[in-house]
Specification:
Elements (H helix, E strand, L loop, with lengths): L3 E4 L5 H16 L5 H6 L2 H13 L4 E6 L5 E8 L5 E5 L6 E8 L8 H15 L4 E7 L5 H6 L3 E8 L2 E9 H15 L2
Parallel strand pairs: 5-6
Antiparallel strand pairs: 1-2, 2-3, 3-5, 4-7, 6-8, 7-8
Helix pairs in contact: 1-3, 4-6
């Protein structure tokens, strides 16, 4: 299975909202409150995603399969303030705020591809190091560790313990190049 990654446009907001909500249900159902989960309902989030897609300070990339069906997305921008308790983010100049793929394409390389594509995008903007926050109880933290993410800090997001993973962009770009080589063999 191959995926095409491109910058999202306003018409993608519905699909992104649906993927985002499904991702939250899978990853965070036992971590966040019912109110937080309810706030992620797709119909409530379409305006949020339209605003982010239109904001030049944000990067929203969407991945589609061969049938042009949206299968995943990544949303990123500048490193945001956070309640850090240990460690730090010195040297990190870009942050992934959200990365989700539909359940049926997980394990097929799309997450790696999205990580590599966002790294390419930030390198073109003169950035050097990428980070993201993941809830401590998020089962998908294994993915970040598998692709070489290092824990840089620990903190809290809405009173939920979380951890910051970091990568030099070149490491993620290499990951993407390796995935493309493997895909073509």
């Amino acid at each position: 299975m191959t995926f095409a990654v491109r910058p999202a446009v306003a018409a993608d907001a519905q699909a992104i909202a649906e993927i985002h909500f499904a991702g939250w249900q899978i990853a965070y159902a036992n971590v966040v409150s019912d109110e937080q989960m309810e706030a992620k309902q797709p119909e409530r989030r379409i305006p949020f995603w339209q605003e982010r897609i239109a904001d030049p300070k944000c990067v929203v990339l969407i991945a589609e399969d061969e049938a042009s069906k949206a299968q995943g997305f990544v949303y990123a921008g500048n490193v945001l303030p956070h309640d850090i308790r240990t460690g730090g983010l010195t040297g990190y100049d870009c942050e992934i705020y959200s990365l989700h793929c539909r359940l049926d394409v997980q394990g097929k390389g799309l997450g790696r591809q999205l990580m590599a594509e966002i790294a390419y995008t930030f390198r073109e903007r003169g950035r050097t190091a990428l980070m993201l926050w993941a809830y401590r109880d998020n089962a998908y933290r294994r993915f970040y560790e598998k692709i070489g993410g290092e824990i840089m800090a620990e903190g809290f997001d809405d009173d939920i313990p979380d951890m910051a993973y970091g990568w030099p962009l070149v490491k993620l770009i290499t990951l993407g190049a390796n995935a493309r080589t493997t895909e073509n063999t």
